[in-house]
Design brief:
- This protein is of the alpha/beta class and 438 residues long.
- Helix content is 42%, strand content 15%.
- The strands form two sheets. The protein has a seven-stranded parallel sheet, with helices on both faces. A six-stranded parallel sheet has the order 10-9-8-11-12-13, with helices on both faces.
- Strand 11, helix 12 and strand 12 form a beta-alpha-beta unit.
- Helix 5 packs parallel to helix 6 and helix 8 crosses helix 11.
- The protein is globular.
């Protein structure tokens, strides 16, 4: 006769097994699939994905970075999502889908990712920026078999497709009559943003998707949309505090052929003329302090219109800078970063300038107040407040070492709260927590 254990003993045995599983999960190396639209040349979100893959591999784990677009050099752990044979066909499907207002609706990449995930034996799949690359339905399907994470670098995972709603509030109920229709990534004559928001709603409601956000601001926007059922885990972006570090500012200015006595203000973005980055507002503030004669460094794509708007200033146009080493020198040579973004999450340029001991002056937009402490590590005013920004610039340029003091505090905050090491630790802790529960 077989005796069944009493309920208490059975529960104790189950708890012991769970505890042992947690211990094993916390010790063993993980095998991770990182998925993003591009390599680090594809913008901030893709750079975060690439950096996370690098950090995991350096720490002894195995991370493969799956991507659609690759412009940089081939790396051993980087995988092309479609491969040369099917790349054109899959991109054509995505382009046709976008043209009729259903961008990334069809999960054409699901079979590839699912097959590779089984073959490689991944412990988890972590999605990053998916616009123009991967369907939300792929995220839904894979979450049924693997612990699946999705970092929201912009608002598209809970809107009808726009990266930032700006002044539009339709995403709070149901998207439609989209004011951004026709602009990337909503390049279509047809407005199906309501339907596409419903697709994302289904993904979050019926999938086992663990959402992450770099900022509390983004987590709040996701929750108020009603699309995401549970508050996301907040894990800030990381910054390489060894690469981006304080240097001899006077010496760097000389190397750049800038008078060491001049105050250098930095303007930086992937596309400096992107209206969302607030360059027009920055130029308006600069014109108000023209007599202070700041020297400008402009990093990013700059067209003729921007060059004309800055006529009369001494400007170093650095263009698009792919080298982190050169970029770190430009950031460390600057006395302050003028950043007037009208909508942003947790921008990497702010973290990189902080780590370089360069304070930020600009608008208290999105997650920026979670990085910059007003009049301690920089100077922030409400979005669009040009007069307030001018007052901050005048105050900062009065001398007395104010900018240097803010820069030192910014460096300390970057090291203590936003280092790559801390970002990796936070990701691993959350990965193992979810794997242990699953």
């Amino acid at each position: 006769m077989v005796r069944r254990p009493k309920n208490g003993n059975r529960k104790d045995a189950m708890n012991a097994r769970k505890e042992k599983h947690r211990e094993n999960s916390s010790e063993r190396r993980l095998k991770v699939a990182i998925v993003s639209k591009a390599d680090r040349s594809g913008g901030g979100a893709s750079r975060v994905a690439a950096d996370l893959a690098d950090l995991l591999n350096e720490a002894g784990h195995t991370a493969h970075h799956w991507l659609l677009h690759r412009r940089g050099r081939a790396e051993a752990h980087v995988r092309d999502l479609y491969g040369e044979r099917f790349s054109k066909a899959f991109r054509l499907v995505n382009a046709l889908s976008r043209s009729v207002g259903t961008a990334e609706l069809f999960p054409v990449e699901l079979s590839v990712l699912g097959r590779r995930a089984r073959r490689e034996g991944y412990d988890l799949v972590h999605f990053h920026d998916l616009t123009s690359a991967v369907s939300p339905l792929t995220v839904l399907a894979l979450s049924k078999r693997w612990p699946t994470f999705w970092t929201f670098h912009d608002c598209s995972p809970f809107t009808g497709g726009c990266l930032y709603p700006m002044d539009c509030t339709r995403y709070l109920t149901r998207c439609g009559a989209c004011p951004q229709r026709g602009d990337w990534p909503l390049q279509s004559r047809f407005d199906r943003t309501g339907f596409m928001q419903d697709v994302r709603r289904v993904t979050h409601r019926f999938g086992s998707v663990h959402a992450l956000r770099p900022s509390n601001w983004m987590a709040d926007r996701a929750m108020e949309s009603g699309v995401v059922p549970r508050r996301p885990e907040v894990i800030p972006n990381g910054v390489d505090t060894k690469r981006f570090r304080p240097r001899n500012r006077a010496e760097l200015k000389r190397m750049l052929e800038i008078d060491p006595e001049r105050t250098v203000l930095l303007l930086a973005a992937g596309d400096v003329e992107d209206a969302r980055k607030g360059t027009r507002q920055a130029i308006e503030a600069l014109n108000a302090i023209r007599e202070k004669r700041p020297h400008l460094i402009v990093v990013g794509h700059a067209g003729n219109a921007l060059c004309e708007a800055l006529r009369g200033f001494d400007v170093l146009f650095a263009g698009w800078v792919s080298s982190d080493e050169f970029k770190s020198r430009l950031f460390a040579a600057s006395d302050a970063y003028l950043f007037c973004s009208l909508a942003d999450n947790l921008p990497l340029t702010v973290l990189e300038t902080m780590a370089s001991a360069t304070p930020t002056l600009g608008f208290a937009t999105g997650g920026i107040p979670e990085m910059i402490e007003h009049e301690r590590t920089g100077y922030l005013v409400r979005p669009g407040d040009i007069s307030g920004l001018v007052s901050g610039l005048e105050k900062a340029l009065q001398g007395g070492g104010r900018l240097a003091k803010w820069g030192e505090a910014a460096r300390t905050r970057a090291v203590e709260h936003f280092s790559n090491e801390l970002s990796l630790e936070n990701h691993l802790r959350y990965y193992r927590k979810i794997i242990g529960e699953r």
